[in-house]
Design brief:
With 360 residues, the chain is an alpha/beta fold. The protein contains 10 helices and 16 strands. The strands form 4 sheets. Strands 2, 5, 6, 7, 8, 15 and 16 form a 7-stranded mixed sheet that branches.
Length: 360
């Protein structure tokens, strides 16, 4: 376990953007589920799937991040020359080279005294990004860090694959991390299990030719008119087992490290894998379900690194804008990796979810 305690950094603002375009699972009963309405109803009830917001055209992760960042910087009246670093967490970059952060640095008209880099992380990526941003401020190398986290997984998911198509949505977020003078501690833990790297994988598309020498699951190589090796593959059963085994331990870990009792936590905001997984984790922790929001996947889809900030904006925007909340944020998934933090959100700038309209 990698752990850290910071006392000089805070989250000052969060904005999340999702595409206006959406698909309803009810409209795909014939194309994805052979007309089985009962199966659709079971999926909606148990997993919580209903609607996903996805891009329909050529727009990209950077387009969503740009809108989120502009809304955040303008809304908070931040001088763009004071941004010391841009961290972009994404697994769906606009280009292999240059980094999406460098590309967005120019589009956002930021100053040249600004570091830019990307982090190739998914479901745990938002907490990874916070960990890096807090660390950069704690070491006095930065005072204002812009964290952009988002993915457009609809571009790598085959929309004819019923195993994953109805699950994943697109979204992006912008978070401002700033120097704090309150000496309030923030706690982080980071974990990885790369031996199970192929549990969630896009086998082809980069520079390694997929081979059974490296990839253990033969199902990954099964292709059809509904899936190619360029499409995302996920072992749903393994992801479920991984989630319910690691997350309760991770939450107990962060409570112990921070010397915090469960009743002192206002909310746990998990990566929105799906409603079924989150409710199972909460029950294993004996944590009140009303304090563990789980509706985001059903409203917007599983948004990878954007799901935690989207949940904050969609569910908690009024509360975090008006008072102090003690929260735990925890992401888990692709890698396999998981990351958890306990921190305060104290009257931050937080808008409701913003919708992105694509140009025709």
């Amino acid at each position: 376990m990698s752990k850290a305690i910071f006392n000089q950094a805070k989250i000052s603002g969060i904005v999340t953007v999702v595409p206006s375009n959406f698909r309803l699972i009810d409209d795909e009963v014939d194309t994805l589920y052979n007309g089985d309405i009962k199966q659709i109803e079971r999926i909606k009830k148990s997993i919580g799937l209903n609607k996903r917001h996805i891009l329909k055209g050529a727009s990209t992760t950077a387009d969503l991040c740009e809108l989120a960042a502009n809304k955040l910087l303008d809304g908070m009246k931040i001088d763009r020359n004071t941004i010391d670093a841009v961290i972009t967490v994404t697994q769906t970059p606009d280009y292999f080279q240059p980094s999406t952060s460098a590309y967005l640095h120019g589009r956002l008209d930021l100053g040249q005294n600004c570091a830019t880099f990307d982090v190739n992380q998914g479901c745990s990526g938002y907490v990874y990004g916070l960990w890096l941003g807090f660390m950069m401020i704690q070491t006095n190398s930065c005072e204002n860090v812009l964290l952009l986290a988002g993915d457009t997984l609809s571009k790598v998911v085959n929309q004819a694959d019923s195993n994953v198509a109805t699950l994943f949505g697109d979204g992006a977020s912008a978070t401002l991390i700033q120097k704090s003078t309150t000496d309030t501690n923030s706690y982080f833990t980071i974990h990885s299990n790369g031996k199970k790297f192929d549990t969630i994988i896009q086998p082809k598309g980069a520079f390694r030719t997929p081979s059974k020498k490296e990839i253990n699951d033969d199902r990954i190589f099964e292709v059809s008119d509904k899936r190619t090796l360029e499409n995302l593959y996920m072992d749903g059963a393994e992801v479920f087992n991984f989630s319910i085994m690691t997350e309760p331990v991770a939450i107990k870990e962060i409570l112990e490290i921070s010397n915090t009792a469960e009743e002192e936590i206002d909310y746990i905001v998990f990566h929105q894998a799906n409603k079924y997984i989150i409710s199972n984790i909460a029950r294993r922790l004996k944590f009140p379900l009303e304090k563990a929001p789980s509706e985001t996947t059903g409203k917007y889809g599983n948004q990878s690194s954007a799901s935690i900030p989207c949940t904050i904006c969609d569910t908690l925007s009024q509360e975090v804008s008006s008072k102090k909340l003690n929260v735990i944020l925890s992401g888990f998934g692709v890698g396999l990796s998981w990351a958890t933090c306990k921190l305060a959100l104290d009257k931050i700038y937080c808008s409701e979810v913003i919708f992105y309209d694509e140009e025709e």
